Every structure is written in structure tokens, then in C-alpha cells.
Amino acid sequence: MIEQTLFFFAQNPLLMLFAVVALGYPISKLRIAGASFGIASILFAGIALGALVMAPGLDAGLKKDISKEMKLVYELGLAVFVYAMGLSISHSFWAAFSREGMKKNAVVFLVMLASTCFVVLLARVMGFNARYAAGLLTGSFTNMPALAGVIERVKSMGAGPVELAQPTVASAIAYPIGVLVPMLVILVSSKVFRVNLREEADGLKDYQVGHHKLEVWTMRVTRSEAESLTKREIRAAGRFQVVFGRVLRKAELLLPGPDFRLKLDDLVTVVGSPDDLVQVAALVGERSHVELDRDQSALDATRIFVSNWEVVGVPLGKLDLVNKHQAIITRVRRGDLWFVPSGDTVLELGDRVRVTTRRDNIEAVEAFFGDSYRAISEVSFLTFAMGLAAGLALGQLPIPLGHGIVFKLGFAGGPLAVALILGRFHRIGPLVWNFPYSANHTVRQFGLVLFAAGIGVISGEGFRAIVSQNAGVLPLFLGAALLVCFVADSLTMLLGHKLFGIPLNIMFGILAGTHTQPVVLGYASHHTGNELPNMGFATVYPLATILKIVLAQVLLALIR
């Protein structure tokens, strides 16, 4: 019965693909000590089922057909995943070139370079070949796009099933270590460095961008100094992340533009975090018991989905909402966080904005922003296909590195590079490259699932052969992964916190970003009790991904 079932899977590769997903996905949701392996569980399920189905007795022609179909599946999944991911992280990538961002990325660059050298040293001491070493690097840093780049490179060398499986096997064994070790480092770091995380976080309010909840205060202008300041100048005075909503002046409700000047006895609504609101109140006067935002006699507030392609990619300052549309955006929700916008804020499809305007103008403002839930669930397949095609073409261009080494960005690096560039510009003429947050997240997950399942099935035969020929491979790679992660994570914390003086709350996010591991990020946020790790993670994630894709393939050429 079991043999018949396995043969049935072998005859129906598409069915086998989704059987792998169905087996692995529930496992990905299991949590052990607060951690889970996420999509990597599908990779493990694919290896297991592939090892059973691709048995020695299976017809060679059938094996070849399965490998061919799964190859197309994992290449498609990888290309879709990295392209969508590149669009989603492009803003963080380009923002990382600030002074603070350069420090954080310098840590990642040095750590990844040192880790690659350390893996080369380990490979020579332990006798690993280049394929095992490259898999060890990608698994220790839990990065599937880098693994895919290695597999693509190995495949181009004419490798057989066993050789092709070697990087996948090494990566699969090292992957759990790449999740657990950084979590342990986070757990002990505050004690080792003698840092009170809560006190440190209290002194880093300026770093925190985005909140689960913003507050609205009504303030009365009682300080004469405030009369000489515009709304723009008040924000700049203390680098406050606040928005002024409406002003009551002598029984008249007004919408303040950027250069609007307050007058004594004005009542003004201000949106922001509690800490910023306290400081603004001290600057302009005092908090009032009047709840001006509840006055809907002339002005009202509504929440609107941004689905109009025309407003995407344009800074709010250029939209000139107050003068052209008699409206003010008081807050923006992107993903799970709210933030207050500025004139430089660029809206994205799927953002939900809180808009204050005249009651008779609400429908016109809704039409301007789109407010279509259906539209923000859709993807423009024209721009998606154009961008992905450009990325795949770029990935096939040979890049000479000298000494006879020719490097290709491949199915991972090409689409990622193009997505980072297109995402930076948001739009070119009528073409909008980014797509809604929810749609992007879904596309990314689906692509990653296809890649993990496809590459797992292909590697199953080689995994069985490797384990049967060398039973000691498992403890050997576990020990090597422990060494790599311990050295890399210790170096990350020492360089970042001690040498560059980066706060520990943010360093935890950098550590998670170095491993490109959301599970570690979730643990870091839970451990700190704040969102500061997110900032470090978002800043270094793009560079860490690109470095792993490049260094893992360079490593193949370094070890002979």
C-alpha cells in the first residue's frame, strides 16, 4: 500500500508538490520554546518525501521527469519571491545609506565577510567540499535565496543528483542551528553587556517609527512664543513626529496647511505618540479638556484605503491636499503599524489613511484616494511581468570576476536587484512598480512555498544517498553550524554594540537581519517588549540577503 502510494506520487509530480506543502505547513506553525521553523518545515517535508519517492527502484526516466518539473517549480517560486521581497524592502534598502544606516550595514558586511572566511577554514580542517561548505553558510544564516543561487551555480557545473543535493543537505541540517543560536545570544546579551533593555529603550524614543496606536490631543495655544511659529516649524523644533488636524479659531474650524501660523487661544488637535504630544503641549501651551476631534459639525474624519495608482509614488507635499482638496492626512496605517506622515511621505497601494475634511467633501476625497478594497487586493500583472522579466534577464548576464571566475546574479540576484531599483522610484510615468502590501505578502509567501517544496523534492534522492553512505554527516554539520553561528553572532554583538555603539535593543534586530530570520526578529521583539528591533532588521535585511547570495557562490570558487 505504501509503495503504491509513493509510486502514485511519482506519476503525479504536481500532486506530490502540494502534498509536500500540506505536510510541511502545519509543522511550520508548531512552536517550541517560542520558536518555529516557518517555511523551512516545507523544505524538510520535501526532502523526506523526495527521499521516499525517488527510491533506487524507480524508473530513471520518471526520476528525470520529476526533477525537470520540480526544477521549473522552484525556479519560478524563487524568482517570484525575491522580486516581491525586493519591492517590499526597497525603501529600507535605500534609507540604509544614511550615516546611521551605514554603521549598521558595516556590521553585517564585516560579519558576513569574516563568516565566509571562517567557513572556508572549517571546510579545509573538516574536509568539506565546496558544495557542502556553501550549504553550511546558507543554512547557518537561514537564507533560501542564497541556497538557490548555490544550487543554480552547482547545476551549471553539470553536477549529478548527489552533488546537487549536497548544499541542500548541509543547509537543511544547519538551518535549525541558525535559528536557535541567535535566540540564545539575544537571551544572554543584556546580562553579558550589563544593559537594562527597558531603560535603554526609554532613551531611544526618537528611533521608534510606527506605533500600534496613536493618540489625539486637543491643545490650547497659551504661549506667546507659539504665535511666531508655523506648523512646519513646530514639528522641526523638537523633531516631533506629529500632525496638526484641525484648528478652532473664534468659532471657526480651519484646516491648517504646512505654513499655517497659530494664534493665542487657538484650539488645535494634534496626533502623535504620547511622549511627543507632551512635548508639543509644553511648547504651544497646554492640553485642553475640549475634545475638538469629536466636533463633526463642519469637519469630519474618515479612514480611506489608498487604491488610486495616481497618488502612489508622489510625496504628500506635492499632492498639496489642503489647498487642492481641502483635506489633511492625520495618520497612515501600513501593515500593522500607524505612523504620522510628513510632506516627504510617499503613499503606497494598500495604505489606510485617516483623513480630515469637510463633511460634504468626504466622497470627493474618497474618490481621489480610490478607497477600493478589491483594487488593493490585485496586482498589476503588466508591471509585475515587466519587472520580473527584466530581473531574470539581468540574472543571466555573465559578470567576470577575474582569474577565470564568471559570476551570474541568477534567478535570485537578478530579480532582487531590479526590484530594489524599481521600488526606489515607485513609478515611471504611468507604470507603478510597487503593489499592495497584502498582495505582496501573499505573492512572497506563495513563491517561497513553491521554492522550498520543489528544491526539497529534488534533493531527496541525494539526501538519502549521502546519509546512507556517511552516517556521521549529521553530527559533523551540526557541530560546524554551531561554530559558525557562535562566532558570527558573537562578532555581530561585539562590533555593533561595543565598537559602533549601537543600542542593544536595535542590535537584536540587526542580529536577526544578519540571519534574515523573522523568527529571531519575533523573539527579539518579545524579549525587548518594544518594536526597536524592527528598525535594525529592516535596515540590514536587504544587504544581508544580497551578500549571502554573492558570498555563497564566491565560496564555491574559493574551495577546491
Automatic annotation (TrEMBL):
Specify the RCK C-terminal domain's residue ranges: 202-286, 287-371
Pfam families, per database record: Asp-Al_Ex, TrkA_C
The residues that cross the membrane are 6-25, 32-52, 72-94, 106-127, 169-188, 379-399, 405-425, 446-467, 473-495, 502-520, 540-559
- Which SUPFAM superfamilies does this UniProt record tie to the protein? TrkA C-terminal domain-like
Q: How does it sit in the membrane?
A: Multi-pass membrane protein
> Which of UniProt's keywords are assigned here?
Cell membrane, Membrane, Transmembrane, Transmembrane helix, Transport
Q: Which domain of life is it from?
A: Bacteria
Name the InterPro entries for this protein: AAE_transporter, RCK_C, RCK_C_sf, YidE_YbjL
Broad class of where this protein is predominantly found:
membrane
Protein location: Cell membrane
By sequence similarity, the record places it as follows: Belongs to the AAE transporter (TC 2.A.81) family.
Q: Which NCBIfam families does UniProt cross-reference here? A: YidE_YbjL_dupl (TIGR01625)
Instruction: Report what the protein is called.
Output: Transporter
Q: Which organism is it from?
A: Geothrix edaphica
